[in-house]
Design brief:
Length: 202
């Protein structure tokens, strides 16, 4: 398999999952700004949407959209415990978290990276994210991870998205449970390895 990624982008989530699952893979650096790959070829030929992540399977098929990719990866290694069994209520809880993170958090951070967004608009999004993070913080009370004691693909995604806070001026100091959670996730060997590979552990 090959993962097309951009350092620190949402592609960090499947990158972490690949390492957590112990699956063999190659990395291919893609610029979401220039839409070029490291060899100068056109990333749009890989994904016409121009976004990472893209997972290229050994047969050449490609999957896009992070929440889908991480579930696919978890299902390749069910013994990893990265996703509950399909069809169970626990699996739907996982999907509930993945949908929340992608729609309520991920997409709310995006305008904060847009230099054309007026500061007044960014303030609205920061307030929205703060409200959502407060709820996440409450859900983490007494739990190691989002689903309880077991690390899942949703944790890889939340860790990735919440990492953006420091770059866009969101104060994380008020979220005690989330802070402890982020430390737990960051200490995992697979997470450390993914951050190292993307040059993000400085």
């Amino acid at each position: 398999m090959k993962l097309y990624y951009s350092p620190g982008a949402c592609s960090l989530s499947p990158h972490i999952v690949l390492r957590e699952a112990g699956l063999p893979f190659d990395l291919s650096l893609a610029s979401t700004k220039t839409k070029k790959l490291a060899d100068g070829s056109d990333f749009l030929e890989v994904n016409a949407k121009g976004q990472v992540p893209v997972l290229e399977l050994d047969d050449g098929a490609r999957l896009t959209e992070g929440p889908v990719i991480v579930q696919y990866l978890a299902d390749q290694k069910p013994e990893s415990g990265l996703a509950p069994k399909a069809g169970t209520m626990e699996r739907y809880r996982l999907m509930e978290w993945l949908n929340f993170i992608t729609s309520e958090l991920h997409k709310s951070y995006s305008p904060l990276f847009n230099p054309a967004m007026p500061e007044e608009g960014k303030a609205v999004y920061r307030a929205r994210i703060a409200d959502r993070l407060q709820w996440v913080d409450s859900q983490l009370a007494g739990k190691d991870y989002l689903l309880g004691a077991q690390f899942s693909v949703a944790d890889a995604y939340l860790f990735t998205v919440s990492n953006w806070s420091g770059y866009v001026g969101i104060d994380m100091s008020g979220y005690k449970n989330l802070a402890a959670y982020r430390e737990r996730v960051a200490a995992r060997p697979a997470v450390k390895a993914a951050l190292e590979a993307e040059g993000l552990n400085k």
